[in-house]
Amino acid sequence: MRETTQPERATDVSRDQEAVSRFVERFAADLAEAGMQRMGARVFAALLVSDSGQLTSAELAERLQISPAAVSGAVRYLTQVDMVAREREPGSRRDRYRLHNEVWYETLTRRDQLLARWEGTMREGAEVLGPDTPAGLRVTETADFFDFMQKELPKMLDRWRAHQAARREPADL
Predict the structure, then answer these.
(1) For residue range 101-159, what is the model confidence (pLDDT) as tens digits?
(2) Three-state SS for 84?
């Protein structure tokens, strides 16, 4: 028996769907230009603009006018980089893909581990190149940058959490 897809209900039925599609493609292009896989960027942007933050493979394929295979490859990439989660619909064989809560915060938090690994590699590289050579100095400066980012990132994320909490508090009248 073939399963049917329930379309996501829009909170704002007055949305211009063409404008939404243009936004998705523009943001996806920005993400791809920054290094994200192109189809993964499109799927991520489509999930981001959905009111529920989650869509099925069929819904993604329809919205983006792409093949199910393209959706599959994109969500495989996005799950590998921990930007989306795959969930099974209860009583169904159909998967839904959803954004993680606080996706940007979580993504940056995980980048801290990557920065530590890169810093270590750069420090090893500086030793191999010779710490006083032009290349060794350049690689040392890169390691120092990664070290700086590791120290600053948690402070910045803490400020973001405080900012978000303050925005959610009711205004004193």
Answers:
(1) 777 777 776 677 778 888 999 999 999 999 899 999 999 999 999 999 989 988 988 89
(2) strand
Please give the backbone phi and psi of residue 99, each rounded to the nearest 5 degrees, phi first.
-75, 145
The reported pTM is 0.70
Q: Cα separation of 43 and 39, whole Å?
A: 6
What are φ and ψ of residue 37, in 5° steps? -55, 135
* CA nearest neighbour of 48 among 20, 89, 88, 80: 20
Instruction: Calculate the alpha carbon distances from 110 to 31, 83, 103, 117, 154 in Å.
Output: 18, 10, 11, 12, 11
| Alpha carbon distance 151, 147 (integer Å) | 6
Ranges of beta strands (E only) in the chain are: 54-56, 84-88, 95-99
Query: How far is 49 from 11, CA to CA, in rounded Å?
Result: 11
The one-character DSSP state at 8 is P
Joined tokens for residue 73: 């490859």
